[in-house]
Design goal:
Number of domains: 2
Radius of gyration: 23 Å
Helix content: 40-55%
Mean pLDDT: 87
Number of helices: 12
Structural class: alpha/beta
Oligomer: single chain
Low-confidence stretches: 214-218, 327-334
Strand order of the largest sheet: 3-2-1-4-6-5-7
Distance between the termini: 24 Å
Order of helices and strands: EHEHEHEHEHHEHHEHHHH
CATH topology of the largest domain: Spore Coat Polysaccharide Biosynthesis Protein SpsA, Chain A
Length: 335
């Protein structure tokens, strides 16, 4: 399949299906004529949602795929991506089956990809400040914390609302995602951003309203503090290694380790002398204070310089355009 888009690109929608039988028929019915294929992924649903869709849906665009074992939302989406790519689709949209996403926004999500502005688009419920008031406070706090951690781990400093599952991707970019390595469950959307950064894909936020009914949030603070924090640290380390040492070297490659070393050395030196002075009940000399403060200040400055470089390095040219220009990626990332 070519990386360039035809005048009328083939669009597919992937719908992970797990305990959504009350809403999924309505979700499918709301998908407009701009979509050519609809993949419903029954993720070993106890309600047998795949069979339910086959029985109650007559839309010829719908294809039901079933998992033998539950794989989580990430596994369901990866199955849908692979099916769409095999069918020659150009753009793949992912929506949830619980009715919380407005399918009328699909043209807004595929437009930046069609226009050559992005490889991947995702929803942002924080764009309209008036609409944010509808978001439950705990969910609002959790998303704010996750957004900050995601900026660091993914390298997409201009994005927000990382757990938003309303997305679209160019098939040319999707083909270079290591499907088997993408996180399968709650961390899926965030891990996708990390994987996209490793192939220098352009990601754009699409403003959307926040709609919440009586559904129970799966976003829990305990997961943010433990599982999510660990995975963000892991992805941050991988991204820095891939982007600043394995694939490229720059001044930033020196600034970060040198800054961390100076900050650590100055802090350890100053703390050890402060403890020794406190035990001896004597004042720390001005020279000792300066020898501690100077590397700390220089270390902080070097780390800030690295962050400034990292922020300025957010991908700007869509990878599918580079593929079209004959600058292919060669092979999948092994992140």
């Amino acid at each position: 399949m070519s990386a360039t888009l035809p005048a009328r690109p083939a669009v597919a929608v992937v719908i992970p299906s797990y305990k959504v039988t009350r809403h999924i028929i309505g979700v499918i019915a709301g998908i407009g004529p701009e979509v050519d294929h609809i993949y419903v992924i029954d993720d070993k649903c106890p309600d047998q949602s795949g069979a339910f869709v086959r029985q109650h849906c007559t839309d010829p665009r719908v294809k039901v795929l079933e998992h033998v074992e539950n794989q989580g939302v990430g596994g369901a989406v990866m199955t849908g991506y692979q099916a769409a790519i095999a069918d020659g689709v150009d753009i793949i949209v992912k929506v949830d089956g619980d009715g919380q996403m407005d399918a009328r926004l699909i043209p807004s999500f595929i437009a930046p990809i069609v226009n050559g502005e992005a490889d991947y688009t995702k929803g942002n419920r924080f764009f309209d400040l008036e609409q944010i008031s509808q978001m439950p406070p705990m969910r609002l706090f959790g998303n704010a914390v996750l957004s900050l951690m995601t900026k660091l781990s993914s390298g997409y400093w201009d994005l927000f609302d990382p757990t938003n599952g309303f997305t679209a991707i160019h098939a040319g970019a999707a083909r270079h995602i290591p499907f088997a390595k993408v996180s399968r469950r709650y961390f899926f959307e965030t891990d996708m951003l990390f994987r996209l950064n490793t192939i220098n894909a352009v990601v754009v936020d699409v403003p959307m309203d926040a709609h919440y009914g009586d559904e129970v949030s799966n976003l829990k603070i305990s997961k943010i503090v433990t599982e999510f924090l660990f995975k963000h640290v892991r992805n941050f380390g991988k991204r820095i290694f891939y982007n600043y040492y394995l694939r490229n070297m720059s001044l930033a490659s020196i600034e970060l380790p040198l800054g961390l070393a100076m900050l650590t050395a100055g802090s350890v030196y100053g703390l050890s002398h402060w403890i020794a002075s406190a035990r001896a009940n004597v004042s720390t000399s001005a020279g000792t204070v300066m020898l501690s403060a100077l590397p700390v200040l220089m270390g902080v400055q070097l780390i800030l310089a690295f962050l400034a470089y990292d922020i300025a390095s957010v991908p700007r040219r869509p990878v599918h355009l580079r593929l079209a220009a004959g600058l292919g990626l060669g092979r999948k990332t092994h992140a």
